[in-house]
Amino acid sequence: MTPPPPGSDVHAADATAEDASASTERTSIRVYEGPVRVWHWVTALAITTLAVTGYLIASPLPSVGGEASDWYVMGYIRFIHFTAGYVLAIGWLVRIYWAFVGNHHSRQLFTFPFWRKDYWDGVVWEASWYFFYRRWPKKYVGHNPLAQFVMFIVFTLGMFFMIITGFALYAEGAGLDSWQYALFGWVFDIFPNSQSVHTWHHLGMWAFVCYIILHIYAAVREDIMSRQSMISTMISGERMFKDNRDD
Amino acid sequence: MSTGSETFYDVIRRHGISRRSFLAFCGLTATSLGLGPAFAPRIAQAMETKPRIPVIWLHGLECTCCTESFIRSAHPLVKDVVLSMISLDYDDTIMAAAGHQAEEILDEIRQTHKGNYILAVEGNPPLKDGGIHCLPGGRPFVDRLKEMASDSQAVIAWGSCASWGCVQAAKPNPTQATPVDKVVTDKPVIKVPGCPPIAEVMTAVVTYILTFERLPELDRHGRPKMFYSQRIHDKCYRRPHFDAGQFVEEWDDEGARKGYCLYKVGCKGPTTYNACSTVRWNEGVSFPIQSGHGCIGCSEKDFWDNGPFYSRLSTVQPFPIEGNADAIGGTVAAVAGGAVVAHAAASVVKHAADKRDMKNERQAQADKTNG
Amino acid sequence: MTTMSTPNGFSLDNSGRRVVVDPVTRIEGHLRLEVNVDDDNVIRNAVSTGTMWRGLELILKGRDPRDAWAFTQRICGVCTGTHALTSVRAVEDSLGIEIPKNANHIRNIMQQTLYVQDHLVHFYHLHALDWVDVVSALNADPKATSSLAQSISSWPMSSPGYFRDVQTRLKRFVESGQLGPFRNAYWGHPAYRLPPEANLMAVAHYLEALDFQKEIVKIHTIFGGKNPHPNWLVGGVPCAINLDGTGSVGAVNMERLNMVSSIIDQSLAFIEQVYIPDLLAIASFYKDWMHGGGLSSTNLLSYGDMPALANTHTNDSLMLPRGAIIGGDLSTVHEVDLKDPEQIQEFVSHSWYTYDDESQGLHPFDGVTDPNFVLGPNTKGDPSTRIEALDEAAKYSYLKAPRWRGHAMEVGPLARFVIGYAMGRPDFKEPVDATLRKLDVPITALFSTLGRTAARGLECQWAAHRLKESFDALMANLKAGDLSTANTDKWEPRQWAHSSRGAGFTEAPRGALGHWVEIEAGKIKSYQCVVPTTWNGSPRDPAGNIGAYEAALLDTPLHDPEKPLEILRTIHSFDPCLACSTH
Ligand code: HEM
Ligand code: HEM
Ligand code: NFV
Ligand code: SF4
Ligand code: SF4
Ligand code: F3S
Ligand SMILES: [Mg+2]
């Protein structure tokens, strides 16, 4: 394998010869449009908030003393949860809209090429990279197949699940005559006892916690170890490749 | 309807109640049912002309607490319901006849009041092995139930047994106890869940049907909306303590004595649709929460398998590992976290090794080119 | 078989005409009775069959032992609470948990309240119609009824006008042609002996008792939040007491206590001025109907209940005595130990369950509940059409057959009263002697259907007095400054031993009730209930001993086998609860 040739033209004011020889030729592609990026970070914040407040809804903080009317601890925690829930849900609607009008990368999150063999080959390849069988991964403009797998199964489907169950629970408080109940009341046809909706919604939180752990780890790791940019991509929208090899 | 039957109005009149106070009563009924005074004449008319509607009350697998609750009704008094409002022609728990004389009543009512009687069911049929775990009259209850339902006007499923299955249907449901609406599919089934339901809720459902000559409006699960459209938690008088964050942390602690919220000791009020926190029990004397114990969710489907009763989080059923959402989720998350740390460490090692190898390879390549 | 004699001294002959009563009504649950009558219509063979089973013992496996009370409470809504109390006691015994004094008093109050209400309802609503002819009441003279009522009691509602109103209501009801729950009964049966006036009085009180019973249970509502099925707690009671601190409204406070006290007073008045006088008046017309003794003159069992001292379960603390009488020997009251593997055992040779070795009984700690519905070769009919007659030589009931040291036993109010009597306890002896005197019958009259019914009435009165005492004891303890209602030292499963087992007991209204629990790793490993009606309604055991129901039905002449009123009388005197018996 040939080491990449030194970059020929480094047009930087302070570039030295050494810098020039250490440079590689890189490509940058615009992948994530503004709305996708904004949505990503808003969602990240919302989900973190939802997980923390959700946990506290199920296992409240130690009791406060004094008059009930002096406090609204549970009330605020739940209010924050519901607000974040609305942010999450509205964001999700916007994101779905953007999948129609945005670039083709904006659609990847909602697609799952289950029937394509080359997709599954890619999953195997990426998995083998994670199992240290390969020295480097392939490059991808969008998500790598393994990431797509996890994002679709855990995130996309999970997101629908959490929003649906969350709003179904919300509908119980809003009342049987509310629009929330009209839209989400059918959840109770599947789980007639609302306690089981709580249980599944709660388990969903843990699925998200696991997803977030793996997601952030993968983002940081790939940022360092893969052949392309990751975190900055979700900030700037630009995908940068560290080399121009075509394997 | 058989002739010679007296009407509710006759009954009331012979109690010595004047026509004037009868009409006042109808007005009161209309108001208390939220219908407004305009409905009073309709109620009066209904009561003046109707003979008492036959009610057949069957028992399957059950504990009879629904009957016991029913006889606690204070308004109306159960004696007035039985003597003056309905014709309770069959109820094994209180009826005078027994044996074949009792069985005959069922066949008689089926024929003479075809399509006109109400079938009230307490308990439920077990279906396993053809229903041999409940054999009143020497035959499976499920057969009798279907037969009586087929000629009824409507079916009332009393209590959580008839509505949902209740305790005998809790896992592993050894007899395959099955809710009434799963075996009676050709008639409207009104579920009045609760273990047992509140007495006045039971009598109100019956009197509603008699008075307005229609079935009450039902929710998506077949429960009368008038009593089951809100959760215990929505109308619980301890709710301000919940919102404030003031909980009973342990039995008989300071918070328990002050009447704090029972959420942390497992109250299922937030997930239970029933009228306890408003109608209350036994003429409004109290309800579970008011007497210091959390709601166990006794009107909800499978509440027995959504316990334990003293924990906010339920044991998660379909998983092989025992535990609640936090135990299961927390374990999985900890495993994921651990895996990430291990993977990160391995990655660092591997990365360093690759770098070294790459350097060596590059060196070798360079040596080869130079050499 | 045509004739045979049982080890417990009865002779059975199933050659005569078979009479089947199914459903037996005015009981709880599903009971079937089959008897053979000889040419004189005297019962010569009796078969008692529980026809329902739910499997609660299996459902309890793997659950949190602190939840068990709620499951077992749903064994029965009639004796509501007694299974729950038995269950929390079993779990506390297993885990070594002691309860506070207030909790003990409140539990006694709950149990005594149940006695008062359950016995009252049984007498008027489940049993009275075996003795009282509702239709005959139409012919009564209200004035004469009034003087009858006033001659036996000072109960205020006894004017001629009052009885006339009741009679008018009844008349219109009957004339309506819609007899409701009174339809198709044995009205006019010659075995009814009350004069119309006594019938009218009883009907009036049937209605009054129906109104009043719902008041009694409000005591359950105060401490347990609802009735039926109030709430209980392992380690104490769930209701906190707060007499004058912040938040006292909503806890047990002066207002709640006053309500309890007032209900107790009303209950005492109702029992002493209505129930007891009615009971004696009715009994006086049936003094010579001395059938239905069964096992009552021989084998009686009681586990005892209502400890005056918290956590002390010996006879010097138990208000209801513990003991067993064998072979009618009233001079010896045997000690009863629920944990002794030799004493209480259940057999299934004639029950729809299976054991590895059905010739042996199993102590509940080793108990097995494994359903097995099979019918004997001589069964007539089958469930797909209708079972016409069971084959009692084979398995024939969902009840197991519990035995105490191999003996079939009778349990219930009569057993408790006889045991208390034999122990010389004045609170049992005096009312029994006084009643026998009043009715002018010998002590042997106790061992009969009427004796059982009378004992229940006396026990209702007894319980109302103890209720007042328990309330006073609670008040005294509160006055001494103790407000504690729950012990949470061992609330958390991590504080429990890895494995443990225990037995809980009560005297349920219908008799001795025991639960046996084994706990392992914080979960129920095994749970067994042996219930009063399992004792009384028991089928035969491998040795051929018959149970109390079967024994009590023997030798009773039926006036008309088509209308077996006499069977109902005797069976109702036990107050059968079949949901309890099979669970
Ligand atoms: C609650 C927290 C988070 C959630 C739920 C979340 C979710 C997601 C989702 C759904 C995508 C796919 C976006 C798309 O295709 O439209 C994504 C991409 C990405 N996220 Fe997150 N994210 C979270 C936090 C973070 C954090 C903290 C980082 C940075 C350390 C991060 C870095 C990235 C990166 C780099 C990508 C792009 C991956 C790629 O290019 O294939 N995320 N994230
Ligand atoms: C990823 C997103 C979410 C997470 C991680 C999350 C987490 C949780 C958790 C852990 C609970 C406690 C469940 C329990 O009772 O055991 C909860 C409750 C709840 N969540 Fe969410 N949730 C999310 C999204 C939503 C959304 C979108 C809504 C919609 C408004 C919502 C509404 C609710 C409601 C109404 C409750 C019940 C509150 C109560 O019982 O007082 N959640 N959530
Ligand atoms: N047999 C019985 Fe029960 C009682 N008493 C309970 O243990 O009735 Ni339902
Ligand atoms: S619903 Fe509950 S109270 Fe009613 S019969 Fe069933 S177990 Fe008993
Ligand atoms: S006690 Fe139960 S129902 Fe009442 S506010 Fe608390 S959680 Fe809700
Ligand atoms: S346990 Fe049942 S009685 Fe009411 S408060 Fe809960 S629904
Ligand atoms: Mg048992």
Q: Could you walk me through the main structural features you see in this protein, from its secondary elements to its overall organization?
A:
The complex is a heterotrimer of chains A (247), B (371) and C (583). Chain A is mainly α and 247 residues long. Chain A is built from 10 helices and 2 strands. Chain A has a two-stranded antiparallel sheet with strand order 1-2. In chain B, α7 links the parallel β3 (118-122) and β4. Chain B is elongated and about 120 Å long. By secondary structure, chain C is an alpha+beta fold. Chain C contains 16 helices and 14 strands. In chain C, the strands form 6 sheets. In chain C, strands 3-4-5 form a 3-stranded antiparallel beta sheet. In chain C, a hairpin with a 5-residue loop joins β4 and β5. In chain C, α4 packs antiparallel against α12. Chains in contact: A-B, B-C. At the B-C interface, α1, α4, α5, β2 and α6 of B face α1, α4, α6, α7 and α8 of C. Bound molecules: protoporphyrin IX containing FE (2 copies), NI-FE oxidized active center, iron/sulfur cluster (2 copies), FE3-S4 cluster and magnesium ion (MG). One protoporphyrin IX containing FE is lined by residues 47, 50-51, 54-55, 57-58, 78, 81-82, 85, 88-89, 162-163, 166-167, 169-170, 198, 201-202, 205, 208 of chain A. One protoporphyrin IX containing FE binds at residues 47, 50-51, 54-55, 57-58, 78, 81-82, 85, 88-89, 162-163, 166-167, 169-170, 198, 201-202, 205, 208 of chain A.
For the sheet with most strands of chain C, the description reads:
3 strands, antiparallel
Uncertain residue segments of chain B: none
Element string of chain C (H = helix, E = strand): EEEEEHHHHHHHHHEEEEEEHHHEEEHHHH
The number of helical segments of chain B is 15
> Overall mean pLDDT score of chain B?
91
What overall form of chain C do the CA principal axes indicate? globular
Strand content of chain C: 5-15%
CA-CA gap between termini of chain C? 31 Å
Please work out how many helical segments of chain C DSSP would assign. 16
DSSP strand content of chain B:
5-15%
Question: Percent range for helical residues of chain C?
Answer: 25-40%
Say what the CATH topology of the largest domain in chain B is: Rossmann fold
What is the end-to-end distance of chain B?
115 Å
